Structures are given as structure tokens and as C-alpha cells.
Amino acid sequence: MVSEQNKARQMDSTLEVESILIEPPQEKNERAFKIEQYLRRTYPNPVIALEFTTPLQLLVAVILSAQCTDVRVNIVTKELFRKYRTAKEFANANRLELEQEIHSTGFYKSKAKNIISCCQTLIERYGGEVPQTMKELTALAGVGRKTANCVLGGCFNIPSGIVVDTHVRRLANRLGLTDQDDPEKIEADLMKFIPKKDWIHFGNALIQHGRKVCVARKPLCAECVLKDLCPSAFTIVGRSGAPTYK
Ligand code: SF4
């Protein structure tokens, strides 16, 4: 049974959500600034969970991470990166063999095709190196903005945008910084409120926070450093109870 206190708290939260949904851009800007400050204090150096030592390895790992956990990708790439050490070796891979090697990451046929095609382009146009612009990266097979942002930020420290994965998508909505579902629209909303110098950190820190605290089903709001800045704090009781921002 819901106590009177909880009812009152939920009612307050609902009012708060409504007020934040219509909060003026300047206030949202200030709130986003504070969110980034709190995240920076909590996660000063958020690391990418995918294991890599070169830009090529991160590129391949992010391609493999679509619809797959980072843990699984790391298991697969441990062997994969021993066998294929350069773009040329990936470009010349036997497709059926590569499919078997990456089978457990899911969507293995399209991933194998994309990795081979992507690496063939790296050989033909970039001497086997990974290019360092969004335009060049997103022209490669299997590479979208998320992958490009991840590689540019993670390997070259270039703030090309904000990585939007499943965690960032969920948290950006819960934090009331967007009301979009589409990753590119979410990224565009976040880029309006977060200064460019913080783009790399903000994406990586949100991912960490999504893994550790603001988890999908039962976020740990009581332990969350963002609870005073979050319109969803203490309102999410499960999928059906989650507030909607539409
Ligand atoms: S207060 Fe709760 S819903 Fe908001 S970011 Fe923190 S854990 Fe997520």
C-alpha cells in the first residue's frame, strides 16, 4: 500500500516534472551545467568499457557492440585482435570465418560484411589508418555517429559530438534534457545544453552513471548525486510506472 507520505512525494514529483517540462531554456541550461559539474566530480575520468589499444581496434569493437554487451564484445575481441592486427588483415579476412569468430555478438553477417568493407576503404583511401573527421568516419560501412563520436573522442580526444547509446538515451530523457527517442535528435538536444569542451566527458560519464546508478528498471535515486537536479527522481517504480516526457 502506498503511504500518505509517498503519495505526497509522488504528487510533488509530478508537479516538478511538469514544471521542468516547460522550464525556460536558460534554466535548463543552468541545470545541464550543474549536471555536468556533478558528473565530473563523481566520474572524473570515465573510461570506455570496450577494450582496445589502437583506433582500428576501437572502431571494430564499437561496430561489434551494436545490440551486444561490452563484456561479450571484449571476450570476442580478445581473440580477434590477436588474429587480425591491421586494417589489411581485416580487409582480407575470409568472410565466413570472420562470421564464426564474431557469431556470439549477434547480427554477425552484417557486422562481418561491414568490418571487411570498412577496412577495405581504410586501405584504399587512408593508407590503413582510421580517419579523424566525422564526415570521413560516417562514410565507412557500419559506422554511424555513435561509433564515430566514440572513436574520435576515445582515441583522438576530438569532441565531435556526444555518444548516445542505450544508457545516454535513457538518462537524457529521465533528466529532462530531451523528449526524443531518436539518438541523433537526442544528441542534438544535448549539444545545445552542454558546452563542446564537455561533450566527450558528458557522454562517457552518463554511460557510467547509467550502468552504476540510474539503471533501467530500478534506478537508485536515493544514492544518486543528480537527484536534486532530476525531474524523475523517486518517480520510476518500474517500466509501467516510469514518467513519460512526450
Ligand atoms: S535521480 Fe534517479 S532517475 Fe534521476 S538520474 Fe538519478 S537515478 Fe536516474
How would you characterize this protein structure?
The chain has two domains: about 120 residues, Endonuclease Iii, domain 2 (Orthogonal Bundle), CATH 1.10.1670.10; about 100 residues, Orthogonal Bundle (Endonuclease III, domain 1), CATH 1.10.340. The chain has twelve helices and no strands. α6 packs across α7 and α10 packs across α12. The protein is elongated and about 55 Å long. The chain is about 60% helix and about 0% strand. It binds iron/sulfur cluster. The site of iron/sulfur cluster (SF4) has 14 residues, from loops. Iron/sulfur cluster binds next to loops.
Quick summary:
With 246 residues, the chain is mainly α. The chain has helices spanning 4-21, 25-42, 55-64, 70-83, 87-91, 95-101, 108-126, 134-138, 145-156, 166-174, 183-193, 199-212. Iron/sulfur cluster (SF4) is lined by residues 174-175, 213-214, 219-221, 224, 226-227, 230, 232-233, 236.
